[in-house]
Design goal:
70% of the residues lie in helices and 0% in strands. By secondary structure, it is mostly helical. The chain starts with a helix and ends in a 31-residue tail after the last helix.
Length: 526
């Protein structure tokens, strides 16, 4: 990097902070901070939803998969995400929007207290926050890895720089700042991605052009859709996981649906995000598929190849723009995660563990939300320093094995609980499926993995916990149905069109009034 590249990078950081300061004027209460007051346009929500699903792991861990295996990186990652979001645009997006518009909640998990019980809500909230600390930690480690390639700063210094900048703008401006910065980041990433695509495409003339390179020995097997550990079972498991994760299971995407004005706009938001996930990753992945022709990885997992290509192919200025693109994806995802976790803690957890939190004013709640955002980012930055430890191994292991493997047990009760066909499944089914899914993850990834020659294949490491949770949630719902009138009323409120929600139709069933002496707006009901 030279002075021009540094100027681009510093200018980007300055703009992000400025957007956060400007967004501060639009945040008057907790609802504005967590769900943009339900005033976000569907197109901005869709772009924000798309951008908040990326991080620098795309340019490190998945660049390594593309370098080693080729097009399977698209087939088994962004394609199932696009398909999952497309399905979820009808199945989940409108229902999640009604959580805000009809149940008046600010956290995606807030409705679980009435849908199941307080214990279920707390189990999912705390475990989800802990998983997010690890997940976001992997994202910080990914961007710090790239930063070290370009600037020579240490891993910990890179984590501190990116985490601090993100903390400033997302703490000040809340979800509005997240969405507006993500819009700017999308434009930056578009320019950077196109520049890299063109640079690699032109370079292919040295190797016989686009149609000639696929027969070269360096790209042997790169055109196969399912290869190595990424087979059919992995693809199907990933599709189910991403169906839950990218439609709200990881919380931050749920906020984008909640932030739109109506269920119909939430549906349009999801459809836009699905199209972007289907098309845009092809542009980003193409240079990675060609990377074995252009660079030699200095790391065993190939995670440095995209950074090496940018240094080799792009002039200064454009190099700085691509580096900004790396930051844009990571900061978009991490800031949205921080906002979601702050919502969960402020609305779902704090009132249970601290009696005083039940009587917070809007101003006090907003201050706590901002403090929680900073604390979460700090904990995730600390976790990032441990990503390459024996417990986690490397970035892609955390993202695929830990996050994908643990997503099912945590997301199934939340997501399926929205749907009428699963109305029989109550707190017993939810807690049992959650606990047994987590136990299955530990069992498959550690005791069994260590005692099987060659270890348990990756596809089973991520699919077995999901399968265990899904089966138990459904079966226990039939064996021990807990569909009380109060729970059924909640489900009907989420599933029924009308009441001016953008669809038309009959009015919805009413949510039961809280017991005497209890506040319906309180997440704990007290």
């Amino acid at each position: 990097m030279n002075s021009l590249d540094w100027a681009v990078l510093i200018g980007y950081f300055g703009v992000m902070v400025a957007i956060g300061v400007w967004s501060h004027k639009r945040v008057d209460n907790v609802s504005d901070f967590f769900t943009a007051g339900g005033k976000m346009p569907w197109w901005l929500s869709g772009i924000s939803h798309h951008m908040s699903g990326y991080s620098a792991v795309m340019f490190t861990g998945y660049a390594g998969i593309a370098y080693t295996w080729g097009v399977t990186s698209f087939v088994t990652w962004s394609f199932p995400i696009a398909l999952g979001i497309a399905i979820g645009s009808k199945l989940f997006a409108p229902r999640i929007n009604r959580l805000r518009s009809r149940l008046h909640v600010a956290s995606p998990l807030e409705y679980l207290k009435n849908r199941y019980n307080l214990g279920t809500q707390q189990a999912l909230a705390w475990s989800g926050m802990l998983l997010k600390i690890v997940d976001v930690g992997a994202k910080w480690a990914a961007i710090a890895t790239l930063l070290s390639v370009f600037t020579g700063v240490s891993l910990n210094q890179g984590i501190l720089i990116t985490g601090t900048i993100t903390a400033v703008y997302c703490t000040i401006g809340g979800l509005w700042a997240d969405a507006l910065t993500e819009l700017g980041q999308f434009v930056i990433q578009f320019l950077a991605g196109i520049a890299m695509f063109i640079a690699v495409f032109v370079k292919l003339d040295d190797f016989g052009g686009f149609f000639g390179v696929w027969d070269r020995p360096e790209l042997k097997g790169h055109g196969e859709p399912l290869v190595g550990p990424y087979g059919t079972i992995f693809l199907l498991a990933f599709l189910f996981i991403k169906l839950f994760e990218y439609n709200g299971g990881m919380l931050n995407q749920a906020q984008r649906y909640m932030a739109t004005a109506t269920p119909y706009e939430a549906e349009r938001s999801a459809r836009l995000s699905a199209v972007l996930w289907l098309v845009w990753p092809l542009v980003l992945f193409f240079p990675m598929w060609m990377s074995p022709l252009l660079v030699k990885s200095e790391k065993g997992d190939g995670s440095d190849t995209y950074a090496l290509m940018t240094e080799q192919l792009l002039p200064h200025g454009l190099l700085g723009l691509v580096i900004v693109g790396f930051f844009s994806h990571t900061m978009a995802m991490c800031s949205s995660d921080a906002n979601a976790i702050a919502a969960v803690f402020t609305r779902d957890c704090a009132p249970v563990i601290w009696r005083r939190a039940r009587t917070w004013t809007e101003g006090q709640g907003l201050r706590v939300a901002r403090v929680t955002t900073v604390v979460f980012l700090g904990l995730s930055m600390a976790a990032a320093t441990q990503v390459n430890s024996p417990a986690f191994k490397d970035i892609i292991t955390v993202v695929i094995k830990w996050v994908a493997g643990l997503m099912g047990p945590m997301a199934i009760p939340m997501m399926l609980g929205l749907l009428r066909p699963f109305r029989r499944s109550g707190p017993t089914a939810a807690l049992t499926s959650w606990a047994c899914g987590l136990f299955a993850f530990w069992l498959v990834n550690y005791p069994i993995h260590w005692n099987v020659e060659g270890g348990v294949p990756l596809q089973y490491q991520v699919s077995i916990p999901l399968a265990v949770s899904l089966v138990l949630y459904i079966v226990i719902g039939f064996i021990k149905p807990e569909d009380t009138p109060e729970r059924l009323a909640i489900i009907e409120k989420i599933n029924t069109d009308g009441d001016g929600d953008g669809y038309g139709g009959a009015g919805a069933a009413a949510v039961p009034a809280p017991a005497p002496g209890k506040d319906a707006s309180s997440p704990t009901g007290v």
